[in-house]
C-alpha cells in the first residue's frame, strides 16, 4: 500500500479535483452562470463550464403547489358514451335492429334484441369490447375484464363498466393528464417541476420558483392540440414547415388541412404486431373521426400521414391500406419504451376528464431561505463536531479523515450539480446523515490498525492490515445501506426520493474518499515522515 504509482496518484487527484470543481457553480448566482455560458467560446464543451448548479426544490426556493383530482363521475360518463357509440357502430355493421333503442345506465348501456339469431350474431362482437385488463409486458394481460357483458333470455343485453375497468380508465387518464400537464408546465420555462401521481386519481404539481399560482392554474387548464394532417410537397402552397421527431427535429412540409383532430381520438394503446411481434400503437376514433379518417386514408394511399402534437410532428407513417373501421395502428422501428411513450403522447391531446383543484398554496422564498440557513447551520455543526471527534481520537489520522470528509461533501454537491438533481430539505438532511456515516469507514480502518499494532505487528503491517482486512466490512456495510437507499428511491416519491438520491451519492463517494483518498494520504505521510509507530 505504501508504493504509489505516479499515474494512479495523478488519476485520483484529477477525479477529485474535477468532482469538487462541479460544485463550484453553486457559489455563483444564476445571472453569473448565464453570463459565463454566453461569454464562453463555442469550442469549449458545455459540461466543462461552471454553469451546472443544483436546482433548489419547492421547500427551499419557494414556488407554487397545486393538487388536482380527476372527476371520476365525468370520466365514467365519457366511458359510457364511448361504449354507446361502439355498440351503435356494431349494430350498424351487423345490420341488427333494436326494440326501443340503446338505453344509458349509470355504469353502462342496455339494449333489447328480440330475435335469437340476431343476438347470436351480435354477442361475439359485443364481447370483443370487453378488453382484458393488463399492461404491455412479457406475461400478457390479466384475467379481469374492463366491461361486463350479460345476455338475458328475454333479449335484454347489458354492458356495464366494471370497477376494474373504471380504475384502469382512471389510471390511464391520470397518466395522460400528467403528460399534458408536464407539457404545459414546461412552457413556463421553469426548472425541475415536480408532477407526480397521488393515490389513484390525484396529481400533484409543484413548480419551484413560480410565485404566481393563478398563472399556474391557467396553464394547467389548457389542453394540447393534436391533429392528423398529410405530409405535403415542399413546393406546394398552403403548407407549414414543422419540426419532425422522426427527422431529428428537421422541419418537413405539412398540409394545413386538418383531417382529424385530437378530440376525435378515443384511445391509443401500446401492443405487439401478431405477425411480426414488433411493438406498435393501436389507436381508435369516435364515429365522426372514423368517417373522416377512413376517407382520407382511402384517397391518399402511399402518402405519409403526419401526427402533429403542438405543432410538432411526432410520427409520420406511410398509409399502406385504407383504414375504414375507425381504428388503426402505427408501426415502425420502435422499441417497447418508444411505443409506450408514443401512445401516451397520442392520448395527451387533451385532458381526458374534468380536473378540480383540491389544494393550492404558495411557498414564499423567505420560508425557503430560512430552511437553507437552518440546513447550512446543521451541516456546519455536524461537520465540526465530527472533525473534532476524529482529531481527538486519532490525531493526525483524524485530520486526514477530516480532509476526506470535506472532499466527500464536495463530491456529493458536484455530482448533484452534474446530474441536475433537485436539492430539497430532506436532501440537506441526507448530507448531514452521510457526514456521520462517511467517517465510519475511517473508524473501521483506524481501529483495525490499532488492533494490529497492539498484537505486535510492525507499523507497515498494521497500516496494510487496516485497509485490507477492513475493506470487506466497509463494502458490506455500504452495500446494505445502498440497498435501503435504492428501495427508498424506487418506492418513494417527492422529498423521500430527494433524500434517497443524496444518500446514494453519499454512499458511493464514501468508498472513494474514505478508502482511496485516505489510503493515498497515509501513504504519502509515511514516505515523508518515516514514523516508527501509529500517531494515535
UniProtKB/TrEMBL annotation:
<keyword id="KW-0653">Protein transport</keyword>
<comment type="function">
    <text>Part of the Sec protein translocase complex. Interacts with the SecYEG preprotein conducting channel. SecDF uses the proton motive force (PMF) to complete protein translocation after the ATP-dependent function of SecA.</text>
</comment>
<keyword id="KW-0813">Transport</keyword>
<dbReference type="InterPro" id="IPR022646">
    <property type="entry name" value="SecD/SecF_CS"/>
</dbReference>
<dbReference type="InterPro" id="IPR048631">
    <property type="entry name" value="SecD_1st"/>
</dbReference>
<dbReference type="InterPro" id="IPR005791">
    <property type="entry name" value="SecD"/>
</dbReference>
<feature type="transmembrane region" description="Helical">
    <location>
        <begin position="467"/>
        <end position="492"/>
    </location>
</feature>
<feature type="transmembrane region" description="Helical">
    <location>
        <begin position="425"/>
        <end position="446"/>
    </location>
</feature>
<dbReference type="Pfam" id="PF22599">
    <property type="entry name" value="SecDF_P1_head"/>
</dbReference>
<protein>
    <recommendedName>
        <fullName>Protein translocase subunit SecD</fullName>
    </recommendedName>
</protein>
<dbReference type="Pfam" id="PF07549">
    <property type="entry name" value="Sec_GG"/>
</dbReference>
<dbReference type="Pfam" id="PF02355">
    <property type="entry name" value="SecD_SecF_C"/>
</dbReference>
<comment type="subunit">
    <text>Forms a complex with SecF. Part of the essential Sec protein translocation apparatus which comprises SecA, SecYEG and auxiliary proteins SecDF-YajC and YidC.</text>
</comment>
<dbReference type="Pfam" id="PF21760">
    <property type="entry name" value="SecD_1st"/>
</dbReference>
<feature type="domain" description="Protein translocase subunit SecDF P1">
    <location>
        <begin position="174"/>
        <end position="232"/>
    </location>
</feature>
<keyword id="KW-1133">Transmembrane helix</keyword>
<keyword id="KW-0811">Translocation</keyword>
<keyword id="KW-0812">Transmembrane</keyword>
<dbReference type="InterPro" id="IPR054384">
    <property type="entry name" value="SecDF_P1_head"/>
</dbReference>
<feature type="transmembrane region" description="Helical">
    <location>
        <begin position="498"/>
        <end position="526"/>
    </location>
</feature>
<dbReference type="InterPro" id="IPR022813">
    <property type="entry name" value="SecD/SecF_arch_bac"/>
</dbReference>
<keyword id="KW-1003">Cell membrane</keyword>
<dbReference type="InterPro" id="IPR048634">
    <property type="entry name" value="SecD_SecF_C"/>
</dbReference>
<dbReference type="InterPro" id="IPR001036">
    <property type="entry name" value="Acrflvin-R"/>
</dbReference>
<keyword id="KW-0472">Membrane</keyword>
<dbReference type="InterPro" id="IPR055344">
    <property type="entry name" value="SecD_SecF_C_bact"/>
</dbReference>
<comment type="similarity">
    <text>Belongs to the SecD/SecF family. SecD subfamily.</text>
</comment>
<feature type="domain" description="Protein export membrane protein SecD/SecF C-terminal">
    <location>
        <begin position="354"/>
        <end position="526"/>
    </location>
</feature>
<feature type="domain" description="SecDF P1 head subdomain">
    <location>
        <begin position="242"/>
        <end position="353"/>
    </location>
</feature>
Amino acid at each position: 500500500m505504501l508504493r504509489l504509482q505516479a499515474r494512479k496518484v495523478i488519476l485520483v487527484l484529477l477525479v477529485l479535483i474535477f468532482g469538487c470543481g462541479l460544485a463550484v457553480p453553486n457559489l455563483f448566482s444564476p445571472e453569473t452562470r448565464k453570463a459565463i455560458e454566453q461569454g464562453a467560446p463555442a469550442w469549449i464543451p458545455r459540461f466543462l463550464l461552471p454553469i451546472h448548479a443544483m436546482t433548489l426544490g419547492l421547500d427551499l426556493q419557494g414556488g407554487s403547489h397545486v393538487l388536482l383530482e380527476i372527476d371520476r363521475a365525468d370520466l365514467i360518463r365519457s366511458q359510457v358514451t364511448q361504449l354507446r357509440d361502439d355498440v351503435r357502430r356494431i349494430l350498424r355493421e351487423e345490420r341488427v335492429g333494436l326494440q326501443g333503442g340503446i338505453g344509458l345506465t349509470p355504469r353502462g348501456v342496455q339494449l333489447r334484441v328480440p330475435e335469437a339469431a340476431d343476438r347470436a350474431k351480435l354477442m361475439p362482437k359485443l364481447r370483443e369490447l370487453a378488453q382484458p385488463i393488463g399492461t404491455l409486458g412479457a406475461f400478457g394481460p390479466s384475467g379481469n375484464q374492463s366491461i361486463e357483458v350479460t345476455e338475458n333470455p328475454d333479449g335484454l343485453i347489458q354492458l356495464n363498466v366494471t370497477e376494474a375497468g373504471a380504475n384502469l380508465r382512471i389510471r390511464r387518464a391520470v397518466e395522460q393528464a400528467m403528460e399534458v400537464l408536464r407539457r404545459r408546465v414546461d412552457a413556463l420555462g421553469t426548472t425541475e417541476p415536480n408532477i407526480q401521481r397521488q393515490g389513484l386519481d390525484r396529481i400533484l404539481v409543484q413548480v419551484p420558483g413560480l410565485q404566481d399560482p393563478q398563472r399556474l392554474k391557467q396553464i394547467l387548464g389548457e389542453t394540447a392540440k393534436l391533429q392528423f394532417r398529410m405530409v405535403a410537397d415542399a413546393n406546394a402552397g398552403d403548407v407549414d414547415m414543422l419540426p419532425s421527431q422522426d427527422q431529428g427535429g428537421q422541419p418537413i412540409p405539412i398540409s394545413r388541412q386538418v383531417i382529424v383532430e385530437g378530440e376525435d381520438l378515443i384511445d391509443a394503446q401500446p401492443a405487439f404486431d401478431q405477425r411480426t411481434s414488433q411493438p406498435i400503437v393501436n389507436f381508435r376514433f369516435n364515429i365522426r373521426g372514423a368517417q373522416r379518417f377512413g376517407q382520407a386514408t382511402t384517397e391518399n394511399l402511399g402518402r405519409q400521414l403526419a401526427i402533429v402534437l403542438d405543432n410538432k410532428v411526432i410520427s409520420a407513417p406511410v398509409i399502406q391500406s385504407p383504414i375504414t373501421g375507425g381504428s388503426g395502428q402505427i408501426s415502425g422501428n420502435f422499441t417497447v419504451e418508444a411505443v409506450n411513450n408514443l401512445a401516451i403522447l397520442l392520448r395527451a391531446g387533451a385532458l381526458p376528464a374534468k380536473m378540480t383543484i383540491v389544494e393550492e398554496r404558495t411557498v414564499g422564498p423567505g420560508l425557503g431561505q430560512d430552511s437553507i440557513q437552518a440546513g447550512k447551520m446543521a451541516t456546519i455543526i455536524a461537520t465540526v463536531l465530527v472533525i473534532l471527534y476524529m482529531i481527538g481520537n486519532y490525531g493526525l489520522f483524524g485530520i486526514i479523515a477530516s480532509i476526506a470528509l470535506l472532499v466527500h461533501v464536495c463530491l456529493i454537491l458536484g455530482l448533484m450539480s452534474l446530474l441536475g438533481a433537485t436539492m430539497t430539505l430532506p436532501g440537506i438532511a441526507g448530507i448531514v446523515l452521510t457526514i456521520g456515516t462517511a467517517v465510519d469507514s475511517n473508524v473501521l480502518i483506524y481501529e483495525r490498525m490499532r488492533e494490529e499494532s497492539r498484537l505486535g505487528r510492525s507499523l507497515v503491517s498494521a497500516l496494510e492490515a487496516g485497509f485490507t482486512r477492513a475493506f470487506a466490512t466497509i463494502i458490506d456495510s455500504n452495500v446494505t445501506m445502498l440497498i435501503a437507499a435504492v428501495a427508498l428511491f424506487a418506492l418513494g416519491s417527492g422529498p423521500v426520493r430527494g433524500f434517497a438520491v443524496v444518500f446514494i451519492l453519499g454512499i458511493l463517494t464514501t468508498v472513494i474518499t474514505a478508502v482511496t483518498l485516505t489510503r493515498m494520504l497515509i501513504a504519502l505521510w509515511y514516505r515523508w515522515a518515516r514514523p516508527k509507530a501509529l500517531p494515535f
